[in-house]
Write a structure and sequence with these properties.
- The complex is a heterodimer of chains A (355) and B (280).
- Helix content of chain A is 41%, strand content 25%.
- With 355 residues, chain A is an alpha/beta fold.
- Chain B is built from eleven helices and three strands.
- The chains are: A alpha/beta (355), B mainly alpha (280).
- At the A-B interface, α4 and α5 of A face α1 and α5 of B.
């Protein structure tokens, strides 16, 4: 929490406003999801503990966390599959507790596991979905065509979903989630179990959709994915939001940037840099200097270079290594996320059907 | 919005699947016919050995065992088809498809009604097949009826079948929704279907039962369905296996109302289960 406040002060809070970055000053962005003091218990187990956050319209918001962190519980409450036990939620201006029907009409969902009827064709799957949402016939048929085109399944129109590849199934599910033109698209582990190439293609569609104005709320445990696509990330662990920010803010906040330098006089350079406030540690190695700094490297680097130049030390090579989201996660939870996700795949396989 | 018809969506998908699986479609239609043909033929030749000795007042109608059994086979087929009619919900739940439906604006009552209607459609198809097949192998339904009377009788049979089927489909949906695995569902349904099956007049006259079972059979919806079926298919006054049967319109209406009551009760049960159900 303390860190969250620091971030708001230290870093430009306007980074939170996507449209400001793009189109200069514009209207304040609309909070499309507002969650306040959400709590959820399964018997004695507290799965979600006083979670509050909001999502701005038009952004890609990621919930990052290991298995059992409470991600799925939060998303299941948001998509109206679990009742609210404690706290308040507003989606698209509607109170989830009292107006679930309106919320349902405002959202689209891509579920974590496959949720396709294997005996229906691609077209029938979308037709069924459109009818569930009572989209009038003509409009429905038109959107089905659009969606099938968007996710490039034209030639699979009349193929039963059991005969589609994993990536095609996911694309169909995304098409299904989008065909009701939702304000918010919920993606629960959208690329779980897909190969890198398929994941990248899926994100091409999703980014397109996002650029056309659909807010995306997703849960994932793929760090790189969250890092690359998210406008805002909340890290959840043991039912609590540990930290939130843009990917850049989160990584910078660790203040563990490392700068590798090759200079004309490493020993003297080390002496000069050691006394700087921003520098935590300087190591002289056979390949040059490794400088660990305590704040944002992108801002420190020019200072360091000026300092060395001012002392007539020539610089032959510079490399700045930023911490990854993995580092961020380890820092705040004391655990690796990767191990958790590997465990989780196995436990998912073992517990299939017992959910 | 006021005239929402999402239940037709559920119905549409169920029917699509029903007609898509030719093998299932075929077996569900042929099985009852086989039942009638094999069990009926075997038993009726057995029964005819001693029913010959029974005397029937002159001028009265005596019907063959096959004819008596015809109505029973219709009833039992409808019972079993309907009892298992909700199983698709359990599969939808376990395969995650129910999440799509539950998270959509489609009201949950529409799921119950959609599944119910598709089950009724299947039952009616089966009953039509049984009746046509039965008439071919010598079931003497609609004897001495005019065309108009026959049409009315068929309609009456289908209405009885529909309401009975609907009741058990609601019941089946309620159980399916509360169960975790198909195995436990099958166990429960088998356990329930046996007493329903035997404490009824589907296969043999109820008058020869011990009083306890006769009493029990009054609580059995199957009894009321069969009453209606025989009233429409055979007539108001006949002998079967030496027992005198006299059915009248008034009692038939009572039987129908009993089935409506059962159906409403089961709908309320299913509604309650669905409203409370959490699928994640």
């Amino acid at each position: 929490m303390r860190l969250f406040l620091n971030l708001e002060f230290n870093l430009n809070p306007l980074l939170r406003y996507k449209s400001l970055k793009v189109s200069g000053i514009s209207e304040m962005q609309n909070k499309i999801i507002e969650v306040n003091n959400l709590e959820h218990n399964y018997g004695d187990f507290r799965a979600v503990d006083d979670v509050s956050f909001y999502v701005f319209e038009g952004e890609i918001f990621s919930f990052l966390g290991p298995n059992g962190a409470g991600k799925s519980t939060v998303i299941n409450i948001l998509i109206t599959l679990l009742p609210i036990q404690k706290g308040t939620i507003k989606v698209d201006g509607y109170d989830l507790a009292t107006q679930p029907e309106q919320v349902r009409r405002s959202i689209g969902i891509v579920f974590q596991d496959e949720t396709l009827d294997r005996d229906l064709t691609v077209w029938e799957t979308l037709e069924f979905h459109g009818r569930l949402y009572a989209i009038p016939r003509n409009q429905r048929r038109q959107r089905i065509d659009e969606m099938i085109q968007l996710v490039e399944l034209d030639d699979k129109r009349n193929v039963r979903t059991r005969n589609l590849s994993g990536g095609m199934k996911r694309r169909l599910e995304i098409a299904r989630g989008l065909m009701t033109r939702p304000k918010v698209l919920f993606l629960d582990e959208p690329t779980l179990g897909l190969d890198t190439q398929t994941r990248m293609r899926l994100w091409e569609y999703l980014k397109e959709v996002n650029e056309e104005g659909t807010t995306i709320f997703m849960t994932t445990h793929y760090m790189d994915e969250a890092d690359q696509v998210s406008d805002w990330i909340s890290i959840l662990d043991k039912g609590k939001v540990i930290i939130s920010g843009t990917p850049l803010m989160l990584k910078n906040a660790l203040g563990m940037d490392m700068i590798s330098l090759e200079t004309s006089d490493d020993a003297r350079a080390a002496d000069i840099l050691k006394i700087l406030d921003v520098v935590n540690n300087v190591k002289v190695t056979s390949k040059g200097l490794v400088v660990t700094i305590n704040s944002d490297g992108t801002h420190c680097l020019p200072v360091i270079m000026d300092k060395l130049k001012g002392s007539d030390i020539g610089i032959t090579s510079v490399n700045l290594k930023k911490p990854t989201l993995d580092d961020v996660f380890v820092h705040y939870t004391g655990r690796e996320l990767r191990n958790d996700s590997a465990e989780r795949m196995t436990s998912r396989m073992l517990s299939r059907g017992g959910r | 919005m006021t005239m929402s018809s999402e239940f037709l969506t559920i119905y549409w998908r169920d029917m699509l699947r029903f007609f898509r699986f030719r093998a299932l479609l075929f077996s569900s239609l042929v099985q009852p016919a086989l039942w009638l043909a094999l069990y009926g033929a075997a038993m009726s030749s057995n029964f005819s050995r001693f029913t010959f000795a029974l005397t029937i007042p002159p001028g009265d109608i005596s019907v063959s065992y096959l004819t008596f059994l015809g109505a029973g086979v219709i009833a039992l087929t409808t019972l079993f088809t309907s009892l298992f009619g909700g199983v698709s919900l359990l599969f939808d739940k376990n395969w995650g498809l129910m999440r799509e439906i539950f998270a959509s604006p489609t009201p949950r009552t529409h799921i119950i009604i959609g599944v119910g209607l598709s089950g009724v459609t299947k039952s009616i198809l089966q009953v039509v097949v049984i009746m046509v097949f039965g008439l071919l192998i010598g079931v003497e339904f609609f004897q001495g009826y005019s065309i108009f009377e026959t049409a009315t009788a068929i309609l009456g049979i289908l209405v009885f079948v529909a309401i009975f089927s609907l009741g058990f489909l609601f019941f089946s949906s309620a159980i399916s929704m509360s169960m975790e695995t198909p195995e436990s569902l099958q166990g429960i349904i088998t356990l329930l279907s046996l007493p329903l099956f035997f404490a009824s007049n589907a296969l043999y006259p109820i008058d020869s039962f011990p009083p306890f079972i006769q009493y029990l059979s009054l609580l059995n919806p199957l009894t009321y369905l069969i009453y209606g079926l025989r009233y429409f298919a055979i007539g108001t006054d006949f002998y079967a296996m030496g027992y005198h049967y006299s059915y009248d319109l008034q009692q038939t209406i009572v039987a129908f109302l009993a089935l409506v009551f059962f159906c409403v009760l089961m709908f309320l049960l299913a509604w309650r289960v669905f409203e409370k159900a959490i699928v994640t």
